[in-house]
Amino acid sequence: MNFSELRFWIYLTVALAVVALIRPLVLHASGHRNEAASIYDRTAILGIGLFLLGCVSPTTLGIFLFVCAITYLGLALFLRRAGAHRYLFLVILVPLQLLPLLYYKYGDFFANGILRQDIPGLSGLIIPVGLSFYTFQVVGFVIDTVIHKHPLPTFLDFMNFAGFFPQIVAGPIERRESLLPQMQAFRFRWDAAAIDSGAPWIVLGLFFKVCLADNLAVHFDPRSADNPFSIWLNNLIFGFRIYYDFAGYSFVALGIARCFGINLTLNFASPYVSTNSQEFWRRWHITLSTWFRDYVYLPLGGSRTKLWGLTILLVFIVSGIWHGAGWNFIMWGALWGLMLLGFHAFKRLRLPAMAGWALTMLGAFFAWLCFYETRTPVLLTKIATLLTPASYTAENLHAAARMLEPGNAFVLGVFLLLACLTLAVEWWSLRRFDEPYAIFMRPAVLCILVVLTVLLAPSEKNDFIYFAF
Questions:
Q1: Residue 141 lies in a domain
Q2: Model confidence pTM above 0.85
Q3: Who has greater pLDDT, 78 or 372?
Q4: 320 — pLDDT class (breaks 50, 70, 90)
Q5: Total tally of structural domains belonging to the chain
Q6: Theoretical Cys-Cys bridge with 208: which of 166, 244, 252, 304, CB 3.0 to 4.6 Å?
Q7: Nearest Cα to Cα of residue 103 among 56, 49, 67
């Protein structure tokens, strides 16, 4: 379900047309119109989600249905028989929910990479789209239901909670108390105010993805391992690209949901204006950060324990593992954990905002190297290059410049400038309105974004980066 592809919008339009044509017939045949409308609308929105997920691949749909079936049947069994043994039940059910994720995402790395078993069936597995996201969402659903003793919803409402199509494949990772009541009350309505609220987010998201992320992706070339200037340039390109790509998806998902009358969580809040590492993680992938805080960090004791620093480091290493099976992701998580510990150790220094921002961005863009470079020996070589002062020579600077053809260098410079101007607008929105994207919501600015998106859309399309996670 790539929002930047015309195919998605055609499929969605056709599905909505079919639902709209059948709806009057169903309501006319029913003697209880309000009840029939409720059941039909909730069933139809689920059908649209399953249809779109099936268009991605039958395997993707099948694994999603398997995880949902395990979750709902296991939860139903627990609520009938577990009684006081609810914590033991979680120890049994949660690993079952995680089985597909462990198999597809970590089986090859653990069995073949760590244990050296050389099992051919585990190599080259394609991770079903959205597996990490909806698995964490239903795991959170189970924990909240068991711990807080919530009632079991109907299977239809649970499936809509787990499979609401705008956010199923790349988040935001929603909570039971936020999304489930909205899905239980869902109705198809033509609400002009809801559309007016959602459409600007769709425009902004497509601008981020198509105009910025996809154009920057064309110039990403991580081959150099001995030239620090080339490595930093690719860190910069990748850092901008992954933000505009992932935030772009999240905004389109938010906008589509609002058009349907559903409010999703804002998953990004201008992270690249952060002045410290703690603030960065309050603004980047917000729903994943809060998921780890509530379901991992706090249960381990949070800041109440003497080992809170070790807990932070552990949580970020687990977060790195969530993003991918590889030593590079473990290093990425550990690096961010160390940066968080460094912030807590020196936060009394009260650095000027600009200095804090510069240090935070230096750490963030350095860490992106561990995110995109999956070859461990090459990654270690690149890190050594960046940390070697003697490698920053005029000769290497000239060599890095020569790697870019003049035309490509100019185009890349234009899009990097546009990316920086976009961040400047985000900064001004926060400073002026205390909202990260307020200026982008203005009609005149939205018109400019539409024109830029149409004129500058590259011919080469790219899937959303987080589809692979």
A1: yes
A2: yes
A3: 372
A4: very high
A5: 2
A6: 244
A7: 67
Give residue for tokens 């489930």.
Answer: 180
Q: Say if 24 falls within a structural domain.
A: yes
Other C-beta atoms within 10 Å of 79: how many? 17
CA distance 133 to 396: 41
Coarse DSSP helix, strand, coil percentages of the chain, rounded to the nearest 5 percent: 75, 0, 25
- CA dist 256 and 251 (Å) reads 9
Note the helical H segments in 260-352. 277-283, 286-292, 308-323, 327-346
**Residue 58 three-state SS:** helix
CA distance 318 to 327: 12
Structure tokens at 19: 């639902």
Residue 78: pLDDT band by 50, 70, 90 thresholds? confident
pLDDT at 120: 74
- Supply the range of the domain harboring residue 136: 6-188
Q: Hey, which bits of 169-232 come out as E strands? A: none
**CA of 380: how far to CAs of 228, 328, 389, 399, in Å?**
13, 9, 16, 21
Residues 6+ apart with CB under 8 A from 8: 1, 2, 52
Residue 449 pLDDT more than 90? Answer: yes
pLDDT at 27: 84
Does 437 share its domain with 383?
Answer: yes
Q: Is the domain of 116 the same as that of 79?
A: yes
198 & 182 share domain: no
Residue 239's pLDDT band, with cuts at 50, 70 and 90, is very high
**Nearest 5°: phi and psi at 132?**
-65, -35
